[in-house]
């Protein structure tokens, strides 16, 4: 009900907002502040160790309803600066039971654990990539040599008394002529037969 009304109103432009809408937003923020302002009562909250306190359950309900995202929006939006003090007070009441040292240590511990997990995941991916690269290198034939071999053609004489040495592959042997590898002489068009 109230959360839905607030989420529907806050992204609107300032010019389109009515006076009733502004009053409704202020009343909802004051209600949230007053709910969070209620001090803890140890005699009433006799739960098992590790059980969530009433304050923690209220914070969880605010998170489930999306109110925390809305508070972040109201705190960061330039046009919603009039709510800055209300939002600041609500946030300070949200962290009322935690000391700054505990919050800082919790954040570092989580960041350190996530960093270690990310490092392990990256190392696993790197090892897998190296293994795939090695497998591809083994499957690939060795580097192709452009040297197709040299063959002596017996019975065909080159200049002098020696046999012709053929430096191409055997499949090119059928098209062998003495002019192989020589530049053909160009004949001008007017001299062509």
UniProtKB/TrEMBL annotation:
Q: Where is the Timeless N-terminal domain?
A: 12-152
Kindly state which keywords UniProt assigns to this record, in alphabetical order. Cell cycle, Nucleus
Q: Coiled-coil ranges per the record?
A: none
Q: Which InterPro entries is this protein grouped with?
A: Timeless, Timeless_N
This protein's superkingdom? Eukaryota
UniProt record, GO biological process: DNA repair; DNA replication checkpoint signaling; replication fork arrest
Q: Where found, per UniProt? A: Nucleus
Q: Which Pfam families match?
A: TIMELESS
| Record's keyword annotation contains Transferase | no
An example Gene Ontology CC term for this record: replication fork protection complex
What molecular functions are annotated in GO for this chain? DNA binding
- The protein's name in its UniProt record: TIM protein
For this protein's source organism, the top of the classification is:
Eukaryota, Metazoa, Chordata, Craniata, Vertebrata
């Amino acid at each position: 009900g109230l959360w839905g009304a607030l989420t529907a109103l806050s992204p609107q432009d300032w010019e389109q907002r009515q006076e009733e809408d502004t009053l409704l937003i202020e009343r909802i923020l004051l209600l949230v502040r007053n709910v969070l302002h209620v001090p803890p009562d140890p005699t009433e909250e006799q739960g098992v160790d590790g059980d969530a306190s009433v304050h923690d359950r209220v914070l969880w309900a605010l998170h489930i309803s999306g109110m925390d995202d809305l508070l972040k929006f109201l705190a960061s939006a330039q046009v919603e600066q009039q709510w800055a003090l209300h939002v600041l007070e609500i946030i300070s009441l949200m962290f009322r039971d935690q000391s700054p040292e505990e919050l800082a240590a919790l954040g570092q511990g989580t960041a350190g654990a996530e960093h270690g997990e990310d490092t392990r995941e990256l190392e696993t991916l790197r090892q897998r990539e190296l293994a795939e690269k090695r497998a591809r290198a083994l499957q690939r034939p060795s580097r192709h040599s452009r040297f197709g071999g040299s063959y002596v053609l017996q019975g065909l004489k080159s200049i002098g008394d020696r046999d012709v040495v053929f430096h191409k592959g055997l499949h090119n042997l059928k098209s062998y002529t003495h002019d192989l590898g020589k530049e053909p002489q160009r004949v001008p068009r007017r001299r062509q037969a």
